[in-house]
Design brief:
The complex is a heterodimer of chains A (257) and B (326). Chain A has 257 residues and is an alpha/beta fold. Chain A has six helices and 15 strands. In chain A, 44% of the residues are buried. Chain B folds into two domains: 171 residues, 3-Layer(aba) Sandwich (Rossmann fold), CATH 3.40.50.620; 126 residues, TPP-binding domain (Rossmann fold), CATH 3.40.50. Chain B contains eight helices and 18 strands. The model of chain B has no long low-confidence stretch (mean pLDDT 94). Classes of the chains: A alpha/beta (257), B alpha/beta (326). At the A-B interface, helix 3, helix 4, strand 9, strand 11 and strand 14 of A face helix 3, helix 4, strand 7, strand 9 and strand 10 of B. Chain A: Pfam families: ETF.
C-alpha cells in the first residue's frame, strides 16, 4: 500500500489569540499537528502495520513545519515531504494548497490518501476533497471507520450524528473524524528513529509550478476578535426562585424562549 | 450589476432544511439585484420547488434521477455541474451542512473557483460582496472576499436571517435531465442515531451535558428539557469520553460547532476546547455545582446548583408555560 497523509501545522487554538494590524499574533505561540490530521497519521500507521506498505506524510508549509513532520515520523510514519512555500507565497488559500499537493501527488500512484476532515485554524475542510477531485479519485469525508480488503474498502462515515456505511475501492482519499482512533504519543525510541528518517524538502520550482499557477482565489480583508461579552449574571436565592428568575429572564430579557 | 446565483436547496426527510432558506437570503445578497435560482437534486424533489420560491428564489431547476436518492459526491456533483454548465452562474451558495461541506470543495475544484466556507454573515463593502467567517475555532473572525471568478460560499446554519415567506410569489420550475453514471461510492446502510432528535447544527435550543451528568442515565433529564423546548441534546468531550453519550453529540474544538439561540450547559466545566464549539451561541446558560467553573465566564446567566435538581424544575416550568399557551 502506497499511503499518503496530508498534514497541516496549526496554531494551537488553546492559545490566547491576539491581533495586531489585522493579523493573528503568533510569536511564541504553540504550534501543533492539526488534531484531525493526527487521526489521519495514526490510521495510516495502523493500516500499514496491518497490510504492509509505506506511509509518507506531506505538508505545504514553512521552515518550522519540519517539527510537526518529525512528530509524525516519530509516531511511525516512514517518510516526510515538506513543500516549503515560505519564499514563494505570501497569501495562499485552499485552492493554493490543494493545487500544490495535487501537483506533488499526481505521479505518485497513491493507493490511499488520508487527511483531517478540517483544520482547526482556517476551518474550511476543503483541501482533501479538492485534491481528490483534481486527482480524479473518489473521496469520503468525516470517516469513523475503515476496512480494506484487497482494493475493496468499507467505510463508516459520520453525517451529522447519523452514520453511513459505504462501499468503495482504492485509490481513495478519506478525511478523518474524531472517533476513528486514538492517536499515539511518539515514544522515545520513535523520536530517536524519526531523526534519521527521510525528510524531503521541495519548493514550487521543483513541482514546475509558478506563483501565478497557485495564486489564491480569495482574499482576507481583515481579521478581528469577537466583541467582548458583557459579564454574565450568576443568580442567587433558593434554587426554585433561581429557576423562576432564569425563565423570566430568558423570556423577557434575552427573548429566546 | 446583478449576478446570477445558484442556491442548492437541501431536503431532509422530505422537507427543506431551514439552512436552505438562509442560503437563499445569502444568495440574494450575493446576487446584488440579480437572479437567484434554486437548485434541487434528488428523487421527486420538484414538489419542494415552490417553497424555495416563496422564500425568495426567482426560479428553480430540478435534477431528478433514481441514482440521486441518497447523496454521493459523484452523483450530486454530476447533477450540479449540469446546472452550472447550463446557467453559467456568477455566484453559488450552499448550506454549510454535512452535504454542503462534502460537495462544495469538489464543485469549487471543478470550476476552478475559490470557496468561502462556513460564512456567518454576507455584506457589501464598496460594491464588493464581503463574507464574515469564524476562524481559530470561533476565537476570531475574518472578512473575506472572492478575488476572481465565481463567488462561492457555504453558510453556517442559524446565522443568516431567512427572508419572510411570501406564499404569493411564483416562479418557473423546470427540470434538467442528466444521466448519472459511474458512482464510485455506494451507500449500503444508514444508521439514524440522531433519528428522534433535532439536528444539532440547526437546533435553536441546545441542552448540553458534561461529566456532571455522571452517566448515560444522567442525560435523560437533559433530553426531557430539550424535548419540551424543541431542542437538541449535546455533550462535552468529557461526557463522550466517559461513554455517557455518542461522539456524534460532541460539541467543541473537535466535534460540532453550534450557534443556537439558547445554549444550556449542564454540569460542563467549560474547558477551552468546549467553548470553541459553543461560545458564539446567542444566549448561554450555565448550570454547575462548582461556582468557580470556567463555564460561568462565558454564560449570560448562571445557576450554581445540582443539574439533577435544576433541570427537572426547568422542564416542569416550561411544560406549565407551554400548557398555558395552548
Amino acid at each position: 500500500m502506497n499511503i499518503y497523509v496530508l498534514l497541516k501545522r496549526t496554531f494551537d487554538t488553546e492559545e490566547k489569540i491576539s491581533i495586531t494590524g489585522g493579523r493573528i499574533q503568533d510569536d511564541g505561540a504553540e504550534f501543533i499537528i492539526n488534531p484531525y490530521d493526527e487521526y489521519a497519521v495514526e490510521e495510516a500507521i495502523q493500516i500499514r502495520d496491518e497490510i504492509g506498505g509505506e506511509v509518507t506524510v506531506v505538508s505545504v508549509g514553512i521552515d518550522e513545519t519540519e517539527k510537526q513532520l518529525r512528530t509524525a515520523l516519530a509516531m511511525g510514519a516512514d517518510k516526510a515531504v515538506l513543500i516549503n512555500t515560505e519564499d514563494d507565497i505570501e497569501e495562499g488559500d485552499q485552492y493554493t494548497t490543494a493545487r500544490i499537493i495535487t501537483e506533488y501527488l499526481k505521479d505518485k500512484e497513491a493507493d490511499l490518501i488520508l487527511a483531517g476532515n478540517v483544520a482547526i485554524d482556517g476551518g474550511s475542510g476543503q483541501v482533501g476533497p479538492r485534491v481528490a477531485d483534481m486527482l480524479g479519485i473518489p473521496y469520503i469525508t468525516t470517516i469513523t471507520n475503515i476496512d480494506i480488503d484487497g482494493t475493496d474498502v468499507t467505510i463508516t462515515r459520520d453525517v451529522e450524528g447519523d452514520s453511513e456505511k459505504i462501499k468503495t475501492s482504492l485509490p481513495l482519499l478519506i478525511t478523518c473524524q474524531q472517533g476513528l482512533n486514538e492517536p499515539r504519543y511518539p515514544s522515545l525510541p520513535g523520536i530517536m528513529k524519526a531523526k534519521k528518517k527521510p525528510m524531503e524538502e521541495l519548493e514550487l520550482d521543483d513541482l514546475d509550478l509558478e506563483e501565478e499557477d497557485v495564486e489564491a482565489k480569495t482574499k482576507t480583508l481583515d481579521i478581528f476578535l469577537p466583541p467582548n461579552k458583557a459579564a454574565g449574571r450568576v443568580l442567587e436565592g433558593d434554587i426554585a426562585n433561581q429557576v423562576q428568575e432564569l425563565i423570566s429572564l430568558l423570556r423577557s430579557e434575552a427573548k429566546v424562549i | 450589476m446583478g449576478k446570477k446565483v445558484l442556491v442548492l436547496g437541501e431536503a431532509r426527510d422530505g422537507q427543506l432544511r431551514n439552512v436552505s432558506f438562509e442560503a437563499i437570503a445569502a444568495g440574494k445578497k450575493v446576487a446584488q439585484g440579480g437572479e437567484v435560482i434554486g437548485v434541487l437534486i434528488g428523487v421527486s424533489v420538484a414538489s419542494l420547488a415552490n417553497e424555495l420560491i416563496q422564500y425568495g428564489a426567482d426560479r428553480v431547476l430540478t435534477v431528478e434521477d433514481e441514482k440521486l436518492g441518497q447523496y454521493t459526491s459523484d452523483g450530486f456533483s454530476q447533477a450540479f455541474m449540469a446546472v452550472v454548465e447550463q446557467e453559467q452562474p456568477e455566484g453559488i451558495v450552499f448550506g454549510h451542512t454535512a452535504l454542503g461541506k462534502d460537495l462544495s470543495p469538489k464543485i469549487a475544484a471543478k470550476i476552478g473557483a475559490g470557496l468561502i466556507s462556513d460564512a456567518t454573515f454576507v455584506g457589501e463593502e464598496d460594491g464588493e460582496i464581503v463574507f464574515t467567517r469564524p476562524i481559530y475555532s470561533g476565537k476570531a473572525f475574518e472578512k473575506i472576499t472572492a478575488k476572481e471568478g465565481v463567488v462561492f460560499s457555504t453558510v453556517r446554519p442559524n446565522n443568516i436571517e431567512p427572508l419572510e415567506k411570501d406564499t404569493s410569489r411564483t416562479g418557473d420550475v423546470s427540470e434538467i435531465s442528466v444521466s448519472i453514471t459511474d458512482l464510485r461510492t455506494v451507500i449500503q446502510d444508514v444508521v439514524r442515531k440522531a433519528a428522534d432528535g433535532v439536528d444539532l447544527s440547526e437546533a435553536k435550543v441546545i441542552i448540553a451535558g458534561g461529566r456532571g451528568a455522571k452517566s448515560e442515565e444522567g442525560f435523560k433529564p437533559l433530553k426531557e428539557l430539550a424535548d419540551v423546548l424543541g431542542g437538541a441534546v449535546g455533550a462535552s468531550r468529557g461526557a463522550c469520553d466517559a461513554d455517557y453519550c455518542d461522539y456524534s453529540l460532541q460539541i467543541g474544538q473537535t466535534g460540532k460547532v453550534v450557534t443556537p439561540d439558547l445554549y444550556i450547559a449542564c454540569g460542563i466545566s467549560g474547558a477551552i476546547q468546549h467553548l470553541a464549539g459553543m461560545s458564539n451561541s446567542k444566549v448561554i446558560v450555565a448550570i454547575n455545582k462548582d461556582p468557580e467553573a470556567n463555564i460561568f465566564n462565558v454564560a449570560d446567566y448562571g445557576i450554581v446548583g445540582d443539574l439533577f435538581e435544576v433541570v427537572p424544575m426547568l422542564t416542569e416550568e416550561f411544560k406549565k408555560i407551554k400548557a398555558a399557551q395552548v
